[in-house]
TrEMBL record:
The lineage of its organism: Bacteria, Bacillati, Actinomycetota, Actinomycetes, Geodermatophilales. SMART domains: AAA. PANTHER family: ABC TRANSPORTER, ATP-BINDING PROTEIN. This is ABC-2 type transport system ATP-binding protein. Belongs to the ABC transporter superfamily. The keyword ATP-binding applies. It comes from Blastococcus saxobsidens. Residues 5-236 form the ABC transporter domain. GO terms for molecular function: ATP binding; ATP hydrolysis activity. Pfam families: ABC_tran (PF00005). Keywords: ATP-binding, Nucleotide-binding, Transport. Transmembrane segments: none annotated.
């Protein structure tokens, strides 16, 4: 699988502050990469360095196989980016804003340009409101307009810094659906977030930044792989303990963790003993548990799932 973003020892220092402290990112084609970290952990600084907007103090960046920032003019047209709240001219419509943005790049006849703008407006679900002035847009619509701008050039890679910041649950779920659709269409997505639940629902790969250091980077499926134990939910945990003598690893209210991953065998034993079971499944850690274990020293700084 080809590498889309690779950094080696990437660092940014502001005076004595190590905002980003020697990170080796590894983002592959087809990933939805969730770049997690508490406020101030260095996500935005990293994203800015990837896009050539901030110069690293040390380290190397390869973006789509080319060295940044040297190859920026060649590479950046293949990358769509959304950093912080996108700026737009409020008195102009969404369509006019995108047309202005499009005019700044190469791109053929007026008809081609009009079509390109109409296509991305449809893609982000703003087709019907594209003629309304942007000052009448909700925050979610503005965010989608920003995404439309990032999509104009049909990028191979999308780099998004906190794309759901300030959105309500419906806005968040709309953006999530849109990103999943783009991913299905073959776009690699790198997205920074401080929301574990969002990343867990969307991402295939996760990197966790803690005070400038990358403390974890792996596929989500590996990080949250079954532990080899079985979780039993029952109103009578003590009866489970009696039947599965010595195999109960933990009891938390009505949740019992049984060592041994053969859920069918555990089920058969409990049913035979007449124990009521309300749920039974292989045990797997949540992303929250994995992240908190990795960034143990900053456990209170990463926002937990609701
Ligand atoms: N231009 C700058 N000059 C000095 N310090 C900076 C500058 N930019 C960022 N920092 C500091 O670097 C650290 C990392 O900031 P950064 O914005 O990258 O974090 P973040 O993870 O994106 O946080 P947030 O989620 O709040 O945006 C912070 O302590 C911040 O104050």
């Amino acid at each position: 699988m080809s590498t889309v973003i690779a950094t080696r020892g990437l660092a940014k220092q502001y005076g004595r502050l190590h905002a980003v402290d020697g990170i080796d990112l590894d983002v592959r084609a087809g990933d939805v990469y969730g770049f997690l970290g508490a406020n101030g952990s260095g996500k935005t600084t990293t994203v800015r360095m990837l896009l050539g907007l901030v110069l690293p103090t040390r380290g190397e960046i390869d973006l789509l196989g080319e060295r940044m920032p040297r190859a920026g003019r060649r590479v950046l047209p293949r990358v769509g980016a959304l950093i912080e709240s996108p700026a737009a001219h409020g008195h102009l419509s969404g369509r006019e804003n995108l047309a202005l943005l499009d005019a700044a790049g190469p791109g053929g006849s007026r008809r081609d340009r009009r079509r390109r703008v109409a296509d991305v407006l449809d893609q982000v679900g703003l087709g019907g409101v594209g003629r309304r002035p942007v000052k009448a847009y909700s925050l979610g619509m503005r965010q989608r307009l920003g995404l439309a701008g990032a999509l104009l050039r049909r990028p191979e890679l999308l780099v998004l810094d906190e794309p759901t910041n300030g959105l309500d649950p419906q806005g968040i779920s709309e953006i999530r659906e849109l990103l999943l659709e783009l991913h299905r269409g073959g776009t690699t997505i790198f997205l920074s977030s401080h929301l574990l639940a969002e990343v867990e629902q969307l991402c295939t790969r996760v990197g966790v930044l803690d005070r400038g250091r990358l403390v974890l980077q792996d596929d989500l499926a590996i990080l949250t792989a079954p532990t080899g134990a079985t979780v039993v939910r029952t109103p009578t945990p003590e009866r489970v303990r009696a039947v599965l003598d010595g195999r109960v690893a933990a009891v938390d209210a009505e949740r019992v963790v049984v060592s041994g991953g053969d859920a069918a065998e555990v089920n058969a034993l409990l049913v035979r003993a007449g124990i009521p079971i309300t749920g039974l499944a292989p045990d797997r850690p949540t992303l929250e548990e994995v992240v908190l274990a990795a960034a143990a020293t900053s456990a209170d700084r990463v926002e937990r799932a609701p």
